[in-house]
UniProtKB/TrEMBL annotation:
Pfam families: GrpB (PF04229). Coiled coil: none annotated. It comes from the Bacteria. InterPro entries: GrpB/CoaE, NT_sf. This is GrpB family protein.
Length: 165
């Protein structure tokens, strides 16, 4: 059973930004034209984080299959994640910090990671609410946290700030 642990984002900020810069350069070289975004809690100032780096790669529909092949050469498929005709997840648990990659088709059902980031960056009250949820699950099992997190993000998707994006 995975246990949830959090740290202040600032504590790992240098390592996250260094890894993001390296990965972005690599990804731009193999996926020209892709929109590569730093997402997740490490992309939101003052957030609590599990200490991993999340990257969203947004591609046009005609580029999706090529992107899956290219990313499969570099990263492990995240088998615990949903797979659709417009979304795939990859990971590199050996990276420091650990790395998660979400490949999405632009404007598809799963093209929301950057929106969550932007809403949390722009509304400190929402960020604090999300951090409070994380604190409630500190030391608890990951599955329970993920269920509560999904409920939070479903709520966030109904906010005026999210709907504007």
């Amino acid at each position: 059973m995975d246990i949830v642990r959090y740290a202040e984002g600032a504590a790992i900020g240098t390592a996250v930004h260094k890894l993001f810069s390296e990965q972005k350069a690599l990804l731009e070289s193999i996926l020209p034209g892709a929109d590569i975004q730093h997402v997740g809690s490490t992309a939101v100032p003052n957030s609590l984080t599990k200490g991993d780096l999340d990257i969203q790669i947004r591609v046009q529909p005609e580029m999706f299959e090529q992107a899956i092949l290219a990313l499969s050469e570099l990263y492990e498929s995240n088998e615990g994640s949903v797979q659709t005709a417009e979304f795939r997840a990859f990971k590199d648990d050996s990276a420091v910090p650990p790395l998660g990659i979400q490949l999405t088709v632009v404007n598809s059902e799963f093209d929301f990671f950057w929106k969550f980031r932007d809403v949390l960056r722009g509304n400190d009250n929402y960020r604090r609410k999300y951090d409070a949820l994380k604190k409630r699950f500190e030391g608890q099992d990951m599955e329970s946290y993920r269920e509560a997190k999904n409920v939070f993000f479903e709520w966030l998707m109904q906010t005026p700030e999210f709907e504007k994006l």
